[in-house]
């Protein structure tokens, strides 16, 4: 990878703002295109969202500083305040001591020792869902991967049976909520911003429905006796096909777990896991299946690796180096979390740019992952780049974020994506029916707007 000189544009505020609206029209027209465009103006630039100045980070070293080195000097900012009615005090939206306490409580459920049991659960769910395909079926991949990811989170983290009714209710709510996040960020402050719109009404209704569904699942855990092992447990509340589970942990179930949280906090964490963990993993798998269908050479090498291992659950990181590179390349080129935000708690300087306390900050991992100065020929799907070239500098590859808020579900996401992909490629050929899918512009997650693929059994 090539290194970049630190460059700061003399004026910091980028040109092209419209009086009163600033860069809002360009941002609304195509947010990702705009963020790629501002990359050219310097390492730290200012855009105006209406009257609000927003500081955009375009340099890996700045990203690393804000997320990691000085990570505790920043909180999550306006986006997460506005998502408060949905995410509450869940991990994703919280900061400081509360965040640290919750993170410590939940961390054991995400430890990498659960990878084998997550792999088993993913294999079982993927095999069952693929068994419904008939040769020549057109599969709606965005919906299919979302359902799979919902089923896996319910089974592994919530230790709940993924009934069709519950899965359907979750899958109905999630896209509405994700569609609502960016408009919430862009809404003006004060009375005008609080006037209900059809979108905000749908958003609030979806949030209520999701919380209602989760309330039922939590109630069923509450009725289990404290300190007991949930059914199917092996050690410390772990199941053969699911790991520890966050709901049992938070309800104080299972040997060694003594924390019992109020229902509201448990709901906040459960909603957070669904919102942070389902669409991201589903989008990643959907892009991956599309890219593999466009690169038959990649598909054959993945098959060789799976066939040699003798089972699809072996597609986890350590055991399958080519899978690892393919997944990494997919996360680079189609980073689901295309935008991350922070707010400065203290003033700081970078070059001649002064960033005041309270300043809103954002950066796009996706724009950085496709910066030609960091990744030559950035739009090419090229898994071998990860072994051919040196590792990117700190801050240049952050699909799971970094620092105190780094994705807690990273190992689960890798396992799910690798094993589901391995199950599919070992038995099916998926081919994209329409043109290359376009990404949804306004979702909180970067995902294909629509992706239809034909499923044909693999010829051996
Ligand atoms: C490919 C899939 C995934 C991607 C790309 C992804 C990406 C991210 C990123 C970038 C962050 C950091 C956000 C920030 O710094 O503002 C994050 C945080 C988080 N993710 Fe993931 N994620 C994925 C899967 C999952 C899964 C499967 C779960 C759990 C079911 C999950 C749960 C969380 C939670 C709870 C946080 C907040 C962590 C904290 O603030 O301490 N994610 N994720």
Automatic annotation (TrEMBL):
<dbReference type="InterPro" id="IPR017972">
    <property type="entry name" value="Cyt_P450_CS"/>
</dbReference>
<dbReference type="InterPro" id="IPR050121">
    <property type="entry name" value="Cytochrome_P450_monoxygenase"/>
</dbReference>
<protein>
    <submittedName>
        <fullName>Cytochrome P450</fullName>
    </submittedName>
</protein>
<comment type="similarity">
    <text>Belongs to the cytochrome P450 family.</text>
</comment>
<keyword id="KW-0408">Iron</keyword>
<dbReference type="InterPro" id="IPR001128">
    <property type="entry name" value="Cyt_P450"/>
</dbReference>
<keyword id="KW-0479">Metal-binding</keyword>
<keyword id="KW-0349">Heme</keyword>
<dbReference type="InterPro" id="IPR036396">
    <property type="entry name" value="Cyt_P450_sf"/>
</dbReference>
<feature type="region of interest" description="Disordered">
    <location>
        <begin position="223"/>
        <end position="242"/>
    </location>
</feature>
<dbReference type="Pfam" id="PF00067">
    <property type="entry name" value="p450"/>
</dbReference>
<keyword id="KW-0503">Monooxygenase</keyword>
<keyword id="KW-0560">Oxidoreductase</keyword>
<dbReference type="InterPro" id="IPR002401">
    <property type="entry name" value="Cyt_P450_E_grp-I"/>
</dbReference>
């Amino acid at each position: 990878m090539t290194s970049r000189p630190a460059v700061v544009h003399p004026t910091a505020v980028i040109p092209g703002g419209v009086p009163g609206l600033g860069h809002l029209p360009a941002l609304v027209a195509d947010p990702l295109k705009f963020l790629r465009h501002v990359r050219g103006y310097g390492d730290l630039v200012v855009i105006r969202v209406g009257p609000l100045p927003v500081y955009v980070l375009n340099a890996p070293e700045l990203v690393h500083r804000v997320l990691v080195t000085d990570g505790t000097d920043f909180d999550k900012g306006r986006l997460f305040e506005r998502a408060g009615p949905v995410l509450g005090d869940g991990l994703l939206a919280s900061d400081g001591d509360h965040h640290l306490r919750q993170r410590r409580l939940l961390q054991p459920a995400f430890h990498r020792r659960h990878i084998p049991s997550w792999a088993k659960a993913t294999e079982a769910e993927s095999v069952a869902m693929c068994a419904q395909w008939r040769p020549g079926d057109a599969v709606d991949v965005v919906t299919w991967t979302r359902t799979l990811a919902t089923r896996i989170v319910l089974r592994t983290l919530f230790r709940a049976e993924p009934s069709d009714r519950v899965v359907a209710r979750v899958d109905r709510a999630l896209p509405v909520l994700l569609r609502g996040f960016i408009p919430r960020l862009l809404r003006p402050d004060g009375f005008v911003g609080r006037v209900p719109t059809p979108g905000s009404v749908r958003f609030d209704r979806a949030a209520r429905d999701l919380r209602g569904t989760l309330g039922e699942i939590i109630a069923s855990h509450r009725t289990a006796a404290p300190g007991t092992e949930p059914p199917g447990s092996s050690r410390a509340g772990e199941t053969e096909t699911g790991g520890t589970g966050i709901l049992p942990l938070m309800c104080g179930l299972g040997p060694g777990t003594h924390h019992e949280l109020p229902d509201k906090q448990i709901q906040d964490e459960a909603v957070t896991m669904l919102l942070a963990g389902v669409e991201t993993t589903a989008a990643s798998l959907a892009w991956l299946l599309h890219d593999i269908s466009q690169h038959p050479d990649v598909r054959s090498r993945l098959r060789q690796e799976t066939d040699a291992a003798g089972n699809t659950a072996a597609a986890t990181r350590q055991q399958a180096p080519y899978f690892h590179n393919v997944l990494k390349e997919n996360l680079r080129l189609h980073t689901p979390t295309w935008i991350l935000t922070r707010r400065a708690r203290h003033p700081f300087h970078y070059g001649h740019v002064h960033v005041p306390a309270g300043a809103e900050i954002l950066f796009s991992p996706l724009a950085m992952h496709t910066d030609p100065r960091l990744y030559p020929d950035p739009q090419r799907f090229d898994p071998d780049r990860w072994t051919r070239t040196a590792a990117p500098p700190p801050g240049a590859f952050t699909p799971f974020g970094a620092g105190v808020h780094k994705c807690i579900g990273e190992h689960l996401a890798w396992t799910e994506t690798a094993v589901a992909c391995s199950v599919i490629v070992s038995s099916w050929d998926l081919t994209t029916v329409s043109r290359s899918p376009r990404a949804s512009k306004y979702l909180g997650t970067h995902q294909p707007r629509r992706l239809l693929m034909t499923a044909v059994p693999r010829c051996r």
